[in-house]
Write a structure and sequence with these properties.
The chain is of the alpha/beta class. The chain has helices spanning 8-21, 24-34, 36-39, 41-44, 61-73, 88-100, 116-125, 146-155, 173-181, 193-203, 227-237, 242-245, 248-259; strands at 49-55, 78-84, 107-112, 132-138, 157-168, 206-212, 215-217, 264-267, 270-274, 277-283. It has a seven-stranded mixed beta sheet, with helices on both faces. Strands 7-9-8 form a three-stranded antiparallel beta sheet, with no helix packed on it. Strand 4 (132-138), helix 8 (146-155) and strand 5 form a beta-alpha-beta unit. Helix 1 (8-21) packs across helix 11 and helix 2 runs parallel beside helix 5 (61-73).
Length: 286
């Protein structure tokens, strides 16, 4: 099986299908609007500038929404925002979003087309000593050595800085799909929020958690020959052209598993796949 991430264009198109069919961003936006500014209040208190790093920021909608939430609560604070994203199509979309959005004069952007690991090497090579107030990691620790990544980025936090991590919840359909079939696919989603919490506990680190319920409409996956459904299957399995590259037996097993009541709810002719996420806010305190 070939990973979907080897083909940036196909990944981008599949990701757009996910965005159109998932309420994940709505769930996250509710969290950003109603909870996150208060959670991060201690990181910005009595400051005139906020230093943020977005790791795996994708096309930037969530990061910009968070910065906007900060700006509404702290209009006098300027923002230094470093964006780390390895997929060029996503980074270009983020740049385009910034170019079109009004009222961003209070934000200074720095762009890095690289992985978290490459950014760490870049940081160390340039002997940077800057401290950071907020680091955002949404749905990206699946693709990194998560313990090393957390250790490095936490080391960049200033006093009262926060590391905000988003990952699949242990009860999500995606996590269950990975446990059942991950070794036969590309095994990308090999961790959940529970793995991160276990690691943080082992290090004695303080953190807070928040469950964000979410669903994906995967009905099109069950329509034979539907191209949008095929792209959703690619995204769910993280396999490039999954239907063409899998055996009939494997595809049949995965389709049945996706539709199983443990993973999905069927209502009004739609199959809604459990996409619950969990936010973990790591607190850097002395």
């Amino acid at each position: 099986m070939i990973s979907l991430f080897t083909n940036g264009d196909r990944y981008h198109k599949s990701f757009q299908q996910f965005l159109q069919r998932s309420d994940e961003y709505d769930s996250m936006q509710n969290f950003i609007d109603n909870l996150l500014p208060d959670i991060l209040e201690s990181s910005v208190k009595d400051m005139s500038e906020l230093n943020i790093i977005g790791v795996g920021s994708g096309s930037g909608e969530l990061d910009l929404n968070i910065i906007s939430a900060f700006h509404r609560k702290y209009p006098e604070v300027t923002v230094e925002n470093e964006v780390v994203e390895p997929i060029l199509q996503q980074l270009d979309q983020y740049r385009d979003l910034v170019a079109r959005a009004p009222g961003l004069d209070h934000i200074k952007f720095h762009w890095y087309e690289m992985t978290a690991e490459s950014f760490e090497a870049h940081w160390k090579e340039n002997k940077r000593t800057k401290k950071v107030d907020v680091i955002l990691m949404f749905q990206m620790l699946y693709y990194e050595d998560f313990s090393a990544t957390i250790d490095f980025f936490k080391s960049l936090l200033d006093t009262n800085g926060k590391l905000v991590i988003s990952l699949l919840a242990e009860n999500s359909g995606w996590a269950k799909l990975d446990k059942a079939y991950g070794v036969q696919l590309t095994d990308s989603f090999n961790i959940t929020a529970d793995n991160i919490k276990q690691y943080l506990d082992s290090k004695g680190l303080r953190y807070q958690t928040y469950l964000l319920p979410s669903q994906i409409d995967v009905t099109a996956c069950f329509i034979e020959g539907n191209e949008e459904g095929e792209m959703m299957l690619d995204f769910l399995t993280e396999v490039l052209h999954f239907s063409q590259s899998s055996s009939p037996e494997l595809k049949a097993g995965i389709m049945e598993f996706i539709r199983h009541p443990d993973c999905s709810v069927e209502s009004n002719g739609k199959v809604m796949f459990n996409n619950d996420n969990e936010i973990i806010v790591v607190i850097n305190s002395i």
